[in-house]
Amino acid sequence: TAKNSGSYWLGRQDLDSLQRVYGVSFPTAKELKEYEKMMEEAERRDHRNVGRQYELFFFNNISPGSCFYFPDGAYVYNRLISFMREELRCRGYQETISPNIFNLKLWKTSGHYKNYKEHMFILQVEKQGFGMKPMNCPGACIIYQEKLRSYKEFPLRYSEFGVLHRNEFSGSLAGLFRVRRFVQDDAHIFARIDQIEQEVMGCLDLAIYIYATVFQFDYELVFATRPEKFLGKVEDWDRAESALKRVLEKLGAPWRLNPGDGAFYGPKIDIMLKDALGRGHQIGTVQLDFQLPVRFNLQYRTEEVVKEGKEEEKKDKLKEVYPPDEYDAEQFVWEEQDLKPGFARPVIIHRAILGSIERFLGTLLELSLIHISEPTRPLYISYAVFCLKKKKKKKKKTQQTKNKKK
Q1: pLDDT at residue 296 in the model
Q2: pTM score of the predicted model
Q3: Which of 165, 178, 268, 345 is catalytic?
Q4: Sign for the pseudo-dihedral over CA of 85, 207, 298, 184
Q5: Catalytic-labelled residue, pool 45, 166, 295, 351
Q6: Between 196-208 and 234-251, two packed helices, what is the crossing angle to 10 degrees?
Q7: Nearest Cα to 114, choosing from 398, 308, 318?
Q8: Whole-number Å distance between alpha carbons of 11 and 119
């Protein structure tokens, strides 16, 4: 028996509480010893232990799933963000900032309330429902909406290091790998249809540079397609999936298909990273979205000259009705809007390279432990802190030895 923990039947808190028992067996004693050795190594490399040992960060049940950082941990954290800020600035990204909490009307418009509500922190303020943002994309759409856009502006590359909150089940929390409060090196690229492939390729080029050249990680590209629960029309999904597949084929790097694991608003290419023990973690992602531009009625003026009297092609419109509930006393209706004459819809490329800074840092620390005694990879930002700590301990021990001799 390895361990035990509490759980709910079918993962639902309103059902019976159960006791989960973990166990493992092996055909031979040799395999058992190899497993025990691997678990000892996992314990030694566990970033939660490393964080406390080197006074980088810790967790406290006063705020489950949220990390507390010591000064050295905050230094590492901020160095990662500063590094990405500089890389993005060189590649034409403009940084934005959006609020942490929005009226539920925004989340109903975006589709999150229907498809992601169980993972959100929702509260009521002055008899109106509000939700902490689990993702930055709706805020980016509001920024886009604020002014009239022209085809000449594209691509618009907006980055944001926003603080996100997701209501993860307490049993799923796992150090920095699964948290409730985190920051992403997020970006949303608003582009024309003809710019999709070049922009997605640019995102993957940046990801490969960061993973392969800077951090020298072993990574894997995974193409995830339409899930069972999705927004929009199947034909739009087919277009998006075909575009991502063409980019992967042009890239020439190995990739594998993961059917049905796309985001609810679009297919994606995930960057999977293996930690020191070979466990896979989804770190970065590039997602192609035809849905949010429709949901938020995002438009831009094209170079087309509009002829008077030209009739627009009639299409079936999407419509959703949200009845009153425990958070909102009023009904909310979202309905697809028509394009204005001479206007078109952009597409959105959602992309994160490091992904969750917390998850990336946890993986980085476990991998950096290999090189703690030999600086073979000076670009490991966390390695500098490890060396600093080691030097401090060595200096303190040397001073104590000198004092004893005196």
Answers
A1: 96
A2: 0.82
A3: 268
A4: negative
A5: 166
A6: 50
A7: 318
A8: 13
> What count of other Cβ atoms lies within 10 Å of the Cβ of residue 147?
8
Q: Are 235 and 227 in contact (CB under 8 A)?
A: no
Active site residue 404: no
**pLDDT at residue number 229:** 82
Q: For residue 42, give the nearest of 276, 218, 370, 282 by alpha carbon.
A: 276
At 391 the pLDDT is: 44
Q: Which helix (H) or strand (E) holds 32?
A: helix 29-45
Q: Is 141 a catalytic site residue?
A: no
Q: Known catalytic residue: 256?
A: no
Catalytic position from the list 157, 165, 345, 350: 350
Residue 264 CA, chain-centre distance (Å), reads 14
Note the pLDDT of residue 299: 97
Q: What is the DSSP string of 225-249?
A: ---SS--S-HHHHHHHHHHHHHHHH
Residues in Cβ contact with 137 at an 8 Å cutoff, skipping those fewer than 6 apart: 110, 188, 289, 292, 348, 350
DSSP conformational letter for 135: -
The rounded average pLDDT for each run of 10 residues, N- to C-terminus, in the chain (406 residues) is: 73 78 87 82 80 87 94 86 92 96 96 92 92 95 96 96 93 89 96 94 93 83 90 86 92 91 88 74 88 95 74 74 92 94 94 93 75 38 46 54 60
Question: Taking phi first (over 0 means left), then psi (-120 to 50 degrees means alpha), and beta for anything else, what does residue 127 get?
Answer: left
400 is catalytic: no
Q: Is 188 a catalytic residue?
A: yes
Q: Which residues share a beta bridge with 276? A: none
Catalytic residue among 45, 47, 108, 184: 184
What is the pLDDT, as a whole number, of residue 269? Answer: 93
Between the alpha carbon of residue 254 and those of residues 68, 167, 222, 266, 279, the distances in Å are 38, 34, 9, 22, 19
Q: What is the C-alpha separation between 127 and 131, in angstroms, rounded? A: 13
Residue whose entry in the numeric block shows the structure tokens 């090189």? 371
Half-sphere exposure of 246 (CA within 13 A, CB side): 12
Question: Which of 259, 263, 254, 191 minimizes the C-alpha distance to 220?
Answer: 254
Residue 67 annotated among the catalytic residues of the structure: no
Which of 45, 149, 157, 188 is flagged as catalytic? 188
Is 186 known to be catalytic? yes
